[in-house]
Amino acid sequence: MRAASPLRVVAAGLALVMALAACGPQPPDAATLLKQSSQRMLGLKGFHFQMQITGFTGPAEPVQSAQGDAHPPDLHAKVNLKEGGILLEVEVIFNADKIYLKSFTGGWQQLTAAQVAEFFDARLLFDPQAGLFAAMRDTTAPYRGNSEKVNGHDAYPVDGVLQGPRVNQLLPLIREQGAYHATYWIESSSSNLWRARVSGNLFDASQPATIVFDFSNHDHPVSVSPPPLG
């Protein structure tokens, strides 16, 4: 048998190296991405968030959108509420177990937990035990898709299922019945969560709705102070 020529040996070696380089390091599996990102987001010193609700919400769900800065449980946000077909913006502050509201009618006033629960207790969204970041670990049947650009960052979409009672914990106006589709866009290198989406018949048994969260300023310290009343 004739020995392979040196040229063929070199060519075969180059082909193998190129093939291995093309494969590159493989991203973590879906369950690992969810676990790592959940831990990362729960440990942040602060972040900026935006939340948008689309689809059918009904009169019992006044919240349409919100944005603000959080270092849970402290949070400062502007919230758009739907009241009789009109959008109204209010400002809320959660600080040291106290809740403050500034409506379009005047200055800051202090609210009880029961009062804020009637329209939107934003603290629940990012509660360490019941909020969105903790819910990532409770997502079943996770599946990782191909990398996508989200807000300028390379992120892997991870799809899965959240049970109704679990989603109801982070937004109590959501129906507890059934299950909902969840997608998380996670950057593999940093474990940052850049976007999350929950969809299904969230507020009505026969009509769909979607909630999208976008995150930025990961780990930028957030300090929330109580406002002057009046």
Structure description:
This protein has one domain: Clam (outer membrane lipoprotein receptor (LolB), chain A), CATH 2.50.20. It has helices at 6-23, 30-42, 113-117, 132-135, 164-170; strands at 47-55, 63-71, 74-83, 86-95, 98-102, 108-111, 140-144, 148-150, 153-163, 179-186, 193-204, 207-216. β10 and β11 (193-204) form a beta hairpin. The protein starts with 5 loop residues before the first helix and ends in a 14-residue tail after the last strand. Strands 1, 2, 3, 4, 5, 6, 7, 8, 9, 10, 11 and 12 form a twelve-stranded antiparallel β-sheet that branches. The model has no long low-confidence stretch (mean pLDDT 88). The chain is of the alpha+beta class and 230 residues long. It is built from five helices and twelve strands.
